[in-house]
User: Fold these one by one.
Assistant:
Number 1:
Amino acid sequence: SSHLGVQVASGPRGFGCSAAPSCRSTAQMLRWTVCTPSGDVLAELEMASTETINDAKARIATSSGREMDTMLLVYGGRPLEGAALASAVPDRAVVTVLRSQVAKTIHIPRDFAMVHDAQDALPDSGGCLELDSAADPQRLTFGTLLISKPNVLLRSQEPIRLPCFLVVSKQGQNFQMENVEVGFLSDPFGNFVEDRGQNKADLTPDQVLLQSGVQPKSMAPRLETRDDACE
């Protein structure tokens, strides 16, 4: 059967396992809602726990016309490895699809010495910036870090604190951090998806923007005036 244009497997073969009854009895059925970063629903998937994330990506690619190799699935702020079993994601979960022109995570400082350069190397659709928690935080950033692309996930395997000003721009929709804190964070457009990585006390007022050389008024959304409404 199909659901929202996605072919739903209806037998053992569709779940990538043999016809043995034990396979059917041990596989748990999982239902996921697959969304874009803006919240639009791409598909409703029904997966077996014995299937892989790559199986899910293949179905999404078939229904949406997106390239499987440029697709990154994220759940709970974590990118899902293609070889991982679907059982890593619970039933009735909401999974986000990031569309990237690169199919790999950029590692800092292995691939790029600085976070700024690593973000510049991401495609316009965003991606994952992985920090090496063993590296010296003082050497990973300088001055103000401006998040200027959507769907950027700044993460580290172990907790790390970057001693920098971080500003999330209007273009930085769906910015997330995991196990990462910064000295000061300003999010004038509400694009930061709060997670475990940043204390609310560090969400700073406009004077921090001024100290870092950014003019808050230049970043503020333009309010519609009565004259605009009458045009």
Number 2:
Amino acid sequence: VSCKEIFQKLGLNPVSLKDVSPDLRHLKVGSEILVGAVLFEKHLSEEDKKAASAKKKDNYAESKRKKEEAKANIKAKAAAASGQDPNQPDFTKLDIRVGKIVKVWNHEEADKLYCEEIDVGDESGPREIASGLRPFYTLEEMTNRKVLVVCNMKPQKMLGFKSSGMVLAAKSEDGTKVELVAPPDDAPIGERVAIAGLTGEPVAPNQVQRKKVFETVAKGLKTLEGGVASWEGKSIETSKGPCKVPTLVGAPIS
């Protein structure tokens, strides 16, 4: 059977040994060679098989280690080229500031959205931001309210309205209650919030989007006892004290 399979792979009809040409020139130039399955596998003892399997695992582990090392080196070089510390805490890559809602109105096409003008200390004036807060706050409750705003996110169109930031709020587990994260009343407008012991400058909006910085940070945003807003268990502070929500405890913030 193996002899026939060899001829098949060579694209020839089987030839008996006595009919084989002495110069062995039976193959034609341009003939297609079929690879297919291995005809004669190497015979290995159980000990050899175990050794080969272990070597394969070691090679895979080493290859994986080298790939991860190469990725880390590329990331470090990119960070160095941009002047960014590769060990910078993720929270500090966001530009979260104290803002004040100076104007708010209903979005014309979305029954859950408010359109807001929020003063975050920009020289160009208040930013326009959309928030899905209509089911939870009235227009009167929103007006002149101090909030926390993520300011280095790429502007997004929300049903025709260009939103240039995100207002932070905590949500109950069942989604029936949402509370805005508020800075102290006397916290300066435009002040960037901080966490004790963490330093770093905010990254550009395109990096926030491309590297999913907010999504990474959001995993650690939560309210503590007393409604204190925190990241990875550390309170989010202004120069006038911590930022809080009225009642929700252990609730995610986004």
Number 3:
Amino acid sequence: IAACFDRRHILISFSLDTGFSFSIPPKTKLDTMKFAAAALAVCLASASAFSGPAKLSSSRNVGAPSSLLQMSTVYETEVVSERAEEPEVMRPPINLPWNSIASQLMEKFGYSVADIAQYESLDSNKEDLMKLYRSMQLARGFENACNQQYMQGKIRGFMHLDNGQESIPGLVDYAIKKGDKKLSYYREHTHALASGVDAGEIMAELFMKDTGTCRGAGGSMHIFDKEHYFQGGWALVCEQLPYAAGAAKSILLDRELGVSDDARYEKQ
């Protein structure tokens, strides 16, 4: 920070992250002195906000009035207090203990004690752990192959990959059944794989071939498979949520009415 004074102009320059300078021609010598005092106060206040109180004590050697130093100290205190305020968390992270999750599964979803025990025994079940690992490896390999074909221009249009989120299709493959209704969003290649949809048909859909899941008409964001109840990827953010809620409601109604699908996946 620099301040220069003469009989014609007063020049104040700030060499901070965003520097600026201005020049004002004073009318009288008294105006010059008043403006110099005000400019020096601004300089000290700005410097204290960035340098801290340790450097304020050394500024007394300049010969500045104590009132200016006090003003700069008050300014610094206000800035520090503003920075100390913690931002409000709109959605705190979910951190539920397993006992609470297990009780919800039994109360809300009808899980039995034996079903809960299967989850608790997963850590020591090598066969199930290998199933999860193979599902994640398949998801990563499939997405890498999609990326290579897209970069070569063989897959056209939109394509959203799911790399780094292989744990989701791994859990889908482990937990759900073929008859469960499945709705996904626009990164659904690996979700369709985990639901049992043939990998060749998914890739053919990305290539817009007639042998694809939608005969090439859906593309990357709209994988659909009737046999595995995979009801498509939806292109809009969160678009699958109302459809999934409606599907859940229809399942509850079917249970109350005692109806289910026949061999042709039609309601009876």
